[in-house]
Amino acid sequence: MTSTLTPTRDRAVRVGPGRAAQRPALTVRDLAVRYGTREVLHGIDLDVAPGEVVGLIGESGSGKTSLARTVLGLVAAAAGTIEVDGHLVTGFTRAQWRAFRRAGHAQYVFQDPLSSLDGRLTARASVLEGARQTFPAAAVRHAEQALETVGLDRALWESRPAELSGGQRQRVAIARALAVDPALLVCDEPVSALDASSRIEVVRTLTAAARAGTGILLISHDLSSLGAIADRVLVLHGGAIVESGPAAEVLGAPRHPYTRRLIDAIPTLDRPAPESRHRARESGPALAPTPLLHP
């Protein structure tokens, strides 16, 4: 049964890592988003189950970040419904959203980990700070458990962000999010600014989070990372989902013409700069920008 009541945690249903959560991490139906008179998303249906990783791809400006921010209450929906961890959040006030996020139902991992990390705090202190908001009586246990889940070496727990690599900082940011035991983790391009070895670190971290029962919505241009971690992939174009399915099928044998062009245009480790990328951007109608879209 969907809850619209005060956003506090139901600990009988969600009892920490390894739990067998019964309700969906995310359910979106017929979502529309507008900026002024411009409709940037329409007819969006999306589900993320506990422990599932759903990848979202699309060209820059396709509305991916708008969708992520709407799911987390940072942008208002113009129509449709959003349920997070069994709670109907459509229409929440800002105060309700703040309480909902503090209660740990949903967390956001940014492209730049420094956006969520205090440069003055050590890795352990940063994660502990987040855990205290949700689990004041058991913050240390939750913080250390999160740091262990992301695989950060204990020797680095007392290091500050400036002393860590990009991949290590992103792991701390993910640990900070996981320390509140979220049902849903939304990751917006978490590996795009990292080198290859750091990307592998973060992929392993997100895999561990999913195994612990967290549902993950992963926005990424990195098809190698998506192929390694995503269970399903959705393709966003023109403000709508034009293709969806198992990751291996969408990335390996796409059906929609736009998906084929998009995948051909995105560089991978074995195809770093294909000429087709430039041809698609310059002449391919499927990749042409549209005034309806917003970053």
UniProtKB/TrEMBL annotation:
The keyword ATP-binding applies. The keyword ATP-binding applies. Residues 267-295 are annotated as: Disordered. Keywords: ATP-binding, Nucleotide-binding, Transport. PROSITE patterns: ABC_TRANSPORTER_1, ABC_TRANSPORTER_2. GO terms for biological process: peptide transport; transmembrane transport. It comes from the Bacteria. InterPro entries: AAA+_ATPase (IPR003593), ABC_transp_ATP-bind (IPR050319), ABC_transporter-like_ATP-bd (IPR003439), ABC_transporter-like_CS (IPR017871), Oligopep_ABC_C (IPR013563), P-loop_NTPase (IPR027417). GO terms for molecular function: ATP binding; ATP hydrolysis activity. Residues 26-263 form the ABC transporter domain. Belongs to the ABC transporter superfamily. This is ATP-binding cassette domain-containing protein. The lineage of its organism: Bacteria, Bacillati, Actinomycetota, Actinomycetes, Micrococcales.
